[in-house]
Amino acid sequence: MLKIAVAGATGAMGKVIVEKAEAAGHDVVKICRSEGVDLLAGEGILEQLDGVDAVIDASQVGDPASDDPITPILDGAKNLIDAAEKAGVHRLVMLSINGVEKPQLQEFPFYKARFEQEQLVQKAELESVVVRSVQWFEFVLNPAGSEVSDDEVKAQNWAIQPAPMGAVADFLVEAAEGKHGEGLITVAGGERLTLPELTERYLAATNDSRKVTTVDAVLPALADGSLYAPVDAIILEPTLEQWLRQQ
Predict the structure, then answer these.
(1) Under CATH, which architecture does the 3-246 domain have?
(2) 145 within 8 A of 113, measured Cβ to Cβ
(3) In the chain, helix, strand, coil percent, each to 5?
(4) Distances (CA, A) of 28 to 56, 110, 167
(5) Where are the domains of the chain?
(6) Burial (CB count <10 Å: 0-12, 13-18, 19+), residue 207
(7) Alpha carbon distance 96, 102 (integer Å)
(8) What gap in Å lies between CA 30 and CA 230, rounded to an integer?
(9) Is a pLDDT exceeding 90 seen at residue 174?
(10) Pfam families attached here (predicted)?
(11) Exposure pattern of 182-198 as b/e (b: 16+ CB <10 Å)?
């Protein structure tokens, strides 16, 4: 059993990571505002990392859609890394996004911020693993890519290779355990499709009769295959069809 801290523990993915880590028998420490921790201000982090073996960073500091999403993300990352080094944490696992290294996707400042955060993590004075994840199956109907009304879903024409959120969370916990070594790893699902296709299949599986309309992606790179996983990506299960049956 390890003592694992989860930064962003109350976020959508953070909650799943906490659940998976506890199910694996680990002692979980939550790094979030409700526990008196402020990553951006650097407050309460060191105290929360006392005795912690590994940190999984799934935090979202600041607003991705703001004029400057980069500064808060990097400031929060620096504060977390500094505290982890001082506390003697052995390993840091960062949840990142597939494709953030590509200039055409860095036109979206949030992706550029994550790429720069990766570099901070890789330079840290502790073992580190950066896990780049594709979009999740659960991204369907997300406001970042879709506009939802009572009778229609307008889905942007993103070209994606999605994976199940739970499997990504499991992988992050395994990385914290040291099962995937160090460095940079990409995880993905096994099927390439568009967001409108994912939306149609999800609505059909959940007996939702709303019409799906395809609209242009806000950034051309989101539709040109830049979000597809590289050939060396680790493919996670369940498959989309298996996941849809569970819905």
Answers:
(1) 3-Layer(aba) Sandwich (3.40)
(2) no
(3) 35, 25, 40
(4) 10, 28, 18
(5) 3-246
(6) exposed
(7) 13
(8) 32
(9) yes
(10) NAD_binding_10
(11) beebbbbbeebbbbbbb
